[in-house]
Amino acid sequence: MTFEWIQIPYALLTLFIILNYGLLMTAVVRKLAARVGGRPGIPVYQNYIDLVKNFALRSKISHGVMYYLGPVFRLTGGIGLILFVPTIYGSSWAQNFAFAGDLVLALYFVFFGTLGMALGAGESGHPHSAIGVSRGLSQVTMAELPLALAVYAIAVQYQTLSITEIVAAQQGGLFNWTLFTNPLAVVAAMFAFVGTMMRSPFDVVLAPQEIPIGPPTEYHSAYLALMQTNRAIFPIAKTIIYMNLFFGGATSWAEFAIKAFLLYMIPAVIGVVHPRFRVEQSIRFFLKWGLPVGVLAILTV
Amino acid sequence: MKDVDDKFLKNIETEFPLREELRPRRVTTPDGQEIEIEPLKDYFCEAAPKVHPKAYIPIVEDFYNWARANSLWILGFGTGCGAIEMRPLMTPRFDAYRYGIQWRPTPRQANLLMISGYLSVKTLKRAIRAYEQMQGPKYVVGLGSCTINGGMYWDSYNTIKRLDQYLPVDLYIAGCMPRPEALLAGFMELKKLIKAGKGEGANKYAENFATYKANQKSVIKDWDMPDYNW
Amino acid sequence: MIRNVLIAGLVALLGVAFWTLAAGYVPDAELNRTAAYYAANAQTDVGAPNIVTGIIVTWRGLDTLGEVTVLFLTSAIIALVLAQSKTPPGASGAGFLPSGELLTTGSRMLLPLITLLGAYVIMNGHLTPGGGFQGGAILASGVLLMLLADPSHRFAHSVIARVESISGLAYVLVGLAGMALAGGFLDNGILPLGRFGAMLSAGAIPLISVLIGLKVGAEFSSILESLEETEDA
Amino acid sequence: MAQIALATGFVLILAGIYGALTNRDILRMIVAFTIADTGVNVVLVAVGFLPGRTAPILDAAVPVAQAAERIIDPVPQALVLTAIVIGLGITALMLAYAYRLFRLRGSLDISNFTELKW
Amino acid sequence: MVSPVLILAIGLGTAFSLGLMKPARTRVLFGITLTALGVMSAIALGWTLALATGAAQTAEIHTAGVAPPFAINLRVGLPEAALLSLITLTGLLAALSMRAALLRLGRGSQAVLLVLVMAVSGLVMTRDLFNLFVFIELIAIATAGLVLLSQDERAIGAGFKYLVVSQIISILLLVGIIFTYHATGSLNIDDITVAPVAFRGASLAMFLLLIALIVELKPFPANGWALDIYTSAHPGFSALFSAATGSAALFVVDKVVAPAGTEWLPLLTGIGLLSFVASNIVALRQENDRRLLGYSSVGQLGLILAVIGQRDVLGDAYLYVAGGLILSHAVAKAGLFWMSSMVRGRKLEDWAALRTRAPMVLAFATFVAMLVGLPPFPGFYAKWDLAQALVAAGRLPVLTLILLGVLIESAYLFRWFGYAIKREAAENGLASNPVDCGITFATVAGGWALGYLWGNGPEQFNLLATLPAITAVVFILLEPLDARIKNGLAIAALLGWFAMVAGDYDPMRLIFAAVMIPGGAVILLASFTEKGRRLGFYPSAMAMYAGLALLLEATTFFEFFAAWEVMTLGSYFLILRGRMSEPHALSYILFSLGGAFAILTGFALASGGVQPHPIDGLQDVAAADLAPWVFVLLAAGFLTKTAAMGLHIWLPGAHAEAETDVSPMVSGILLKAGLFGLFLMLMQLGRQSLYGVDLTVVLAYIGAISAFLGAVLAVFQEDAKRLLAYSSISQMGYALFGVALMNHLGWLLAMMFVINHYVYKSMLFLAVGGVYKRTHTKLMYQMGGLITLMPFSFVSVLVGIIAMSGVPPLSGFGGRWIFYNAIMDADLRLPLILIFMAGPVGFLYLFRLIHTIFLGQLKDPHRKLKEAPVWILVPQMIFVAFLIAFAVLPGMALQKVDGYIGSIFGDQPLVWHGRAITSEFGYWNPVAIMAVIVMVFVAVFAILIAKNHDAQMVKQFNIVFSAERPYRPETTHFAWNFFAPYRKAMGFLETPVVTSFWGGVTGGINGAGEFTRRFYSGNGQTYAAHVLLFVVAVYLIAMGGIA
């Protein structure tokens, strides 16, 4: 794969679609949750309004350069992740810039935004930010582990690190999905998925009342808007990776929308019925359950 | 009833000296030099609040105001019994979320300060700080009679009687206590105000900063913070 | 007590080793080759009828020089050891009982005889049993007698020291002369061997004997004197 | 004969060593060592002994020609002289040391001189 | 050429003639004594020179004009002449050292000294058994006399104890001699050799003879008397006692053992080894300097005795080895004793006074290095040859014990050296004067000269003749210059060397060379910050760089090992310079030496005694049975250097406590030496398995465990430099894992780590060091909010941690990408888990580093801090630029290496086209990655600027604090125990298992020392009983073995 200029508008289009999809889908998920609780819930366009409002704030403060750059890192991380992962299999234009790197790039680029966010939060000087970062990083070390193992397992299984090729290998029927060809790896990966979606029971990082939403506690206005944008994009980007690796990818936008929604619903559903873990509890949880499954996955490939 | 007791105003300096940790002091640097630390100056931003103009194009400002009105993020300040009436707003029966109203845990991200109930002198200080830390445009809603005239605490030595002397209140919701329905009505009213471009409390506060500060300081004797809490 | 028993055990074990030696010991029937060589060549090599003296002074002359040095060292060191305790001259001896008349008189009588005997033993060392060491020791016993007889008596230190030094130096020089004039260090062949069995024969042996005698006598005297001159001797 | 001399010598050595190691009095130790030295000298001489022979002096009794058959081994005799002198030197030195030690501590018990240890 | 017997005659004659002078003319007397000693030395030296150059033949000196065996004869061959030179020169210098006492006690004492020197010389020359006895007794008596020169009253007791033991020795000796004579009919040593043994007591006689001579060597435990003498005697004399008497006694044993026959050699070996190891163990607990030297002396004598016991296998090398050890020991020990006469206090700590005189430190270092057998001193060459011979002869246990002993010895010697460098120096603790200094430096010069001579041995690689080593030595001479000048010269030297050699290297070596040599020069830029003369820094640093340069140049085992040791020694001195680094430098040198000994043994095993053995020859043994053992030993050595988990406990302290510019050197550069060694080894040996276990798999596990645990431990550190140090362990674990994968990409991964780790770790250490320079603390929670004050440092830390955590787009990602491709091929699944875990954990500690230092709340004392000194920033900025360039164009360094590794493995999994890299499994386009990220970043940033360009800059306390006001920065900075929840969950990994293990080992050895030294009760009688016990015990053992 090589670069052509046309890929830039294509990629921007993909990005646009995903952004809107993300904004709407998160609202829909919240609305679903509200309906379950018997409430009407927010309007589905509420995310757009919030975004506009935050961009429209008049006064803003800055704690310093890294504070300023934090959201930029964060959003760059999200957008970059989208751009480095092919979205729709077989599509001539939704491949983004996947030629730049393979699965390894996607896995490690996840940390780009995390790092920037953590740095920005750090410079805000707020102890709660630091506590949030500490919790988040502690938790993610173990949460990501099953994913790493699962990814290795399927990379060995498919003998490639190219996401496109992995998706290609899953085409031709439901039972070609990794979900069925390598269920252990998928289970392991789903531990990581649930663990990193910032939903209960793994959302002690944000802990809105204890450490007012943790790392971004000092962020507001356009900073917050950028981060909200990221919050719309990033889970989708992650979902795309999981979808591509484990659930046969998507050959059309419709398939993409359905699969992404269903995948996204998994942590949402788990979240509404589970109380919160403390950090050390969730670490132990992943050690006790996620890790063995992951180990089994790489041993049985 | 005056909020300010002249007797106290006379010896603020002596009766309420600056807190230990805020007093200027000499510190030895790692190199062994002595430097002067003035915490209030060194720790805090000293700038005064600015008046922020509206968007240059009116239609943009209207659009913004519409967004602001439909995305009210509340900083709930449960200072008195009135706070109890805020909770039902989250329940299925009243569900304020449908109006774009959400609760935020930090003043930075909130733009509606709900003063729910009476304010004592002590809590006023916190309310001021929280308000000043919110980013504009920001709105203040006083909830219940206590914020309007002291209510049942009208003759208390330690309770604030008129909130709008200290903060630019956009809306009072009367009642002791106001029912959730009244709150919802209040929010609707506030939305109207905002959409009409009248929710300029932040700018009002900046314009009349000296007055507000004087009022605030006249009741809060141990003013151990910078004039404006950024 | 336990300690003594343990040591006794150790000594006994050592005794076992020695016992092995003694039990396995068979006296030689013949002289071994070294001794045989000495017996055969005493006349031609050193010209001394007393083979032992020949061995001591010539064949194993280096040992002897070492021996002399041992005494020299001992005397020097004893002087050093006792140096700090030495009392000022003249003050010593005050605490002694005067020696008896018998001893005083006896020593006066015996001293010349002892000296004479010493001189004899030294001079005839290469002919009959005796030699520099034996003679020197006899000479020193005379000094001992004198010290006993008159504890407060002081010898001329410098005289003893000179005798010591000169005889020692001369011994070394004789040795070196052996290198220059004869077969090697301490070769007695620097002087003619002379007639076998005569007084002045066996090359430098008599000369060396005299030097040894003087040296030994002086050293012993010096040692005795040092010991005697300690403050409460 | 030689065995007896040897045995005597060894017994003296052992006795001397035992004495030196068990008597704490320094003077007694010195005496014990002289006993041991004597034993050594006896051993030395005994080793040079050949049964039925005479002293290694070539005089009328022992003509030069028959020397090899008539005399005992002269070497140990020479050695023993050196050994005696050296033993004497060391004994004298020990005595001097004993004196100094006594002056130092007013005691002749060797177990009192243990400042240097470990 | 005058006859050597004149040495005896002059000594004796002068001693006698001193009595002719007036005792009062002390100076004249002393002058005469010195002259005599000088003439004796001149004769001895003349003979040594003549014999060494072949101008003279071995001199056989007959006394009494009769040929041996009938008269006493003397011999002066090369060994004798060398020993004579040693003895007489030691005597001369000792006389100078003792001048005050000799002048005070007058001519008698001088005569005794002369006689002593004469007697020791005679002992060396004589070939007659009984004459030996005479000289031994002379030495005993003279020693008893010279002990009295001491002002210390305890010396009298010591002298008496010595006499008591001498008596026992002389009894045994005489009995032995007379029965030997009886058995062989001769007293001549050479004659006895040819004569048959006559009766069955002969071996017993020989035993008595030998054991008496051995007891003269003060074997453990029959050596209490000697130790007391060392402790209390005048140090000038102790030097003589140790260097001259000890060496001569050894030579005598050597002389006598020839006629005794080879069946006695095991006995000597056993006694020697016991003595060596036990004395060193006991010395561990010693606090008195002279007694320590005493233990060390008896230990060294034991070592050489053991070497004498190996003469049957040493062959031609025997003299070279034994001589090297004896001379090293003698020169160093004498030098140390003479130095001790200048130090006023008797505690080891009192030697800190030396620090006030820099040359004294050099002297001390020289002597310590000589004693331990480090290059470039003779002991080093000797140790090498000894090891080769021992291993070739299958005497591994002997070698093991020797090396163990050396290790223990180096423990207390380097601990002592550490005291001297680091402890509080007492006021006026050094009584230095020109004469004593002169003596010391004459000794030092002698030591170096010997080092050169030994290096010049046949077929020997002379370390002191190599350009890098010469450069390092030159920097010793340059010490008086200003540090900046020296720094410039050092950089020029490094770059010059690199320019000289770079052309000859293969790509892999070139990468290592680039990291080590010009890489070092870049780090040295930071040293421009230092003002003054910075004594000791440049010689140490240049020694380390010399070692590294030679390591890369090495073609033979020996060259490699020599370079290794030079590097270790140099880096030790460097590390020791740190403020609190004393214990850490000690553990560093001990682990390094332990590792080096493993390498030594490994090389010896591999070479089978053939010397010089090319490194490439290692592959010849790859198929041999012993190959796995070679592998294990070499790997153990290299792993010590890379601080693999288990062998790592030296690293955190050593790296953390080193100076600002030293930490990056030892971390960024020095660790690579271990990797280099591993590469060389694996390249030659390939996979090996032991008991069915593939050793490369073991390596991979070790690497993975190191990577993981190193990271976990780093997470829990509060000290920034310690954190970085643990991080190094982790990073080296990755590299080790890569190497152990034994495939193309694994090696490429390791190479990538070589470059990357050098760059980012150097950068981080410099940045943290720069911060430390300003804040004077390394504890992260005491800092905070420094970003605005030290923006450049912040940037380099930021870039460093992005690169290190492997986040794209910086170069660390390349490493991760290669890693994934590499493991796709590997069968190793389980260790991967640990590696996978290590990645995110690494992210934890890195974030903590940047957060707690640069972000968060600024502390009051730091409000006016300045940015780190510019010279510390310059290299950091170079590294930043390099990292970014390397991230975009990894091919500039890796492509050639890739090709080279391909030539080793015969495959080429990576395809480089244009800027992109493709592997069998995936692809990587660094330029595209960088471009996309930069574009997106810029776009998002532009949006933010458009909206928030007018943001109000606020201060650090303007935070939302639950409507309260923050109290003070200290309580508002969340930093201490930053990952507390992590500790709760994973804290069990922090259990100091390894530390307690090594603590147990050292505690055990120390305890053994403490227990054993209680033997030395101080009672002369007990000592005599020890001697007897020793004799009897050896008798029982030996008679079991020999009869």
TrEMBL record, chain B:
Alphabetized GO MF terms: 4 iron, 4 sulfur cluster binding; metal ion binding; NADH dehydrogenase (ubiquinone) activity; quinone binding
Record has Iron-sulfur as a keyword: yes
Record keywords: 4Fe-4S, Cell membrane, Iron, Iron-sulfur, Membrane, Metal-binding, NAD, Quinone, Ubiquinone
Matching Pfam families: Oxidored_q6 (PF01058)
GO CC aspect terms: respiratory chain complex I
Chain ranges of the NADH:ubiquinone oxidoreductase-like 20kDa subunit domain: 80-190
GO terms (BP aspect): aerobic respiration; electron transport coupled proton transport
Family per similarity comment: Belongs to the complex I 20 kDa subunit family.
Protein name from the UniProt record: NADH-quinone oxidoreductase subunit B
Classification lineage: Bacteria, Pseudomonadati, Pseudomonadota, Alphaproteobacteria, Rhodobacterales
From TrEMBL, chain C:
Primary localization class, coarse: membrane
All copies of domain MrpA C-terminal/MbhE, residue ranges: 15-78
Superkingdom to which the source organism belongs: Bacteria
Location of this chain's protein in the cell: Cell membrane
Recorded topology in the membrane: Multi-pass membrane protein
Signal peptide from the UniProt entry: none
Residues annotated as transmembrane: 64-83, 109-127, 133-149, 169-186, 192-214
Keyword presence, rRNA-binding: no
Annotated keywords: Cell membrane, Membrane, Transmembrane, Transmembrane helix
Stretches assigned to the Na+/H+ antiporter MnhB subunit-related protein domain: 103-220
Gene Ontology CC annotation, any one: plasma membrane
KW Transmembrane helix (keyword) present: yes
Family: Belongs to the CPA3 antiporters (TC 2.A.63) subunit B family.
Name the UniProt record assigns to this protein: Multicomponent Na+:H+ antiporter subunit B
Gene source species: Tropicimonas isoalkanivorans
Automatic annotation (TrEMBL), chain D:
Subcellular location: Cell membrane
Keyword Calcium applies: no
InterPro entries: CPA3_antiporter_subunitC (IPR050601), NUOK/Mnh_C1-like (IPR039428)
Coiled coil: none
Record Pfam families: Oxidored_q2
Gene3D superfamilies named in the record: 1.10.287.3510
Domain of life: Bacteria
UniProt keyword list: Cell membrane, Membrane, Transmembrane, Transmembrane helix
Cellular component terms per the entry's GO annotation: plasma membrane
Transmembrane residue ranges: 29-50, 78-99
Membrane topology: Multi-pass membrane protein
Family (UniProt): Belongs to the CPA3 antiporters (TC 2.A.63) subunit C family.
Protein name (database record): Multicomponent Na+:H+ antiporter subunit C
Species the sequence originates in: Tropicimonas isoalkanivorans
Lineage: Bacteria, Pseudomonadati, Pseudomonadota, Alphaproteobacteria, Rhodobacterales
Automatic annotation (TrEMBL), chain E:
Ranges for domain NADH:quinone oxidoreductase/Mrp antiporter transmembrane: 127-405, 556-834
Location of the protein in the cell: Cell membrane; Membrane
Keyword Signal attributed: no
GO CC annotations, alphabetized: plasma membrane
Record InterPro entries: CPA3_Na-H_Antiporter_D, ND/Mrp_TM
The UniProt record lists the keyword Transmembrane: yes
Membrane topology annotation: Multi-pass membrane protein
Gene Ontology molecular function terms on file: lyase activity
TM regions (residue ranges): 6-21, 28-56, 76-96, 108-126, 132-150, 162-182, 194-215, 227-252, 264-285, 292-311, 317-339, 360-377, 389-414, 435-455, 461-478, 485-503, 509-528, 535-552, 558-576, 588-606, 626-650, 662-683, 695-716, 723-741, 747-772, 784-808, 828-847, 868-889, 923-946, 1023-1042
Keywords, in A-Z order: Cell membrane, Lyase, Membrane, Transmembrane, Transmembrane helix
Function (record text): NDH-1 shuttles electrons from NADH, via FMN and iron-sulfur (Fe-S) centers, to quinones in the respiratory chain. The immediate electron acceptor for the enzyme in this species is believed to be ubiquinone. Couples the redox reaction to proton translocation (for every two electrons transferred, four hydrogen ions are translocated across the cytoplasmic membrane), and thus conserves the redox energy in a proton gradient.
Family: Belongs to the CPA3 antiporters (TC 2.A.63) subunit D family.
Protein name per its UniProtKB record: Formate hydrogenlyase subunit 3/Multisubunit Na+/H+ antiporter, MnhD subunit
Provenance organism: Tropicimonas isoalkanivorans
Classification lineage: Bacteria, Pseudomonadati, Pseudomonadota, Alphaproteobacteria, Rhodobacterales
